[in-house]
Amino acid sequence: MLANTFIEKDYKVDFISCLAGEHFYELRREICLIEPNFKRLPGLNSRLIFYPRLCLFIRRTIISKNPDAILSFGDWFNPIVLLSLLGLRYPVFISDRTSPDRYGFPLEQVKTILYPRSTGFIAQTKRAADFKHKKFGQKLNIKVIPNALREVSLYSNISREKIILYVGRFAWEKAPELLIRAYKAIPDRQGWQLHMAGTGPLLKSMKALVADLNIKDAVVFHGKIQDIDTMFARAGIYVLPSVIEGFPNSLCEAMAAGLPCICFDSIPYEEIFTNGVDGIAIDSGDLDKLTSAMIELMNDKQLRETLGTRAKQIRNRLSVDIIGKQFTEFIFGE
């Protein structure tokens, strides 16, 4: 989204991918997409070869493009980009994209050495900025800029159904098991189903868990969905059970679709909604409170509609034009 909006504002954009693979998102044709012609394969020996090759690929590509500025995303790849450009004078702006305390040794030690070499650091949330301030002090030029929100489609011809929706990877940090177990604990579901969209390493085990809990008839696994907006339009409640998030895009998208949303307070929800006003945050990992919050929304249509209507205001706060301008102002001082 940022690359596309930069093009619309008459910037030239070259998009360097550190990993070649499936293109799930579309870039405007004016954007030059550059990928390595080698892949990262499993195994230690393969990785020991891959990363030096990647550093050389990044360095050569950037020298050939001679950009005015470099914007790098990713906890793993930011240090690689900075390492690749040692000795060169390009301004590099970096941004971690997950919870600031997600990684430990040795990545944090590498960041301690390399991050002060950046021109600027973009934090997704105040939580992340505070974490970096404590670690780096004045060595890091930090600016808080939230994620941009894509244009979420609204459908007046689709009615809300008794669906509790999950959208995300099936991975430990997303904690889909917590949602499944909390849903199982609802004594009277009144026809409400749990729909789960996404794929990931835990998908198979989550399907097995649903079978073990004897709720297969009430849980629907959708796999990967391109048109997720129709699911947002059909659903009645959205739950994000993640225990770790940098800035949860799916939560923002669900709010933009007018859904009442529930999440744990271990993620930076306060940057996205006000608890009890346009969303619900509960104690991290508390299954009983998650079950109770779902029951409360299931039983109160007026509360669902009120929260959902207020939640849609996020469309204005996180529009790509507003967020894109914050990026260009920080990078170019415009």
Structural class: alpha/beta
Rg, nearest Å = 21 Å
- Give the quaternary arrangement of the chains: single chain
Give the end-to-end Cα distance, rounded to a whole number of Å: 20 Å
Mean pLDDT: 96
The amount of helix comes to: 25-40%
Which fold name fills CATH's third level, the topology of the largest domain? Answer: Rossmann fold
CATH architecture heading of the largest domain: 3-Layer(aba) Sandwich
The H/E string reads HEEHEHEHEHEEHEHEHEHEEHHHH
Number of DSSP E strands: 12
Give the count of structural domains: 2
What is the number of helical segments per DSSP (H or I, 4+ residues)?
13
Shape assignment: globular
Uncertain parts: none
| CATH superfamily descriptor of the largest domain | Glycogen Phosphorylase B
Name of the CATH first level of the largest domain: Alpha Beta
In percent, how much strand structure appears in the residues? 5-15%
The biggest beta sheet reads: 6 strands, parallel
- Sequence of strands across the biggest β-sheet: 9-8-7-10-11-12
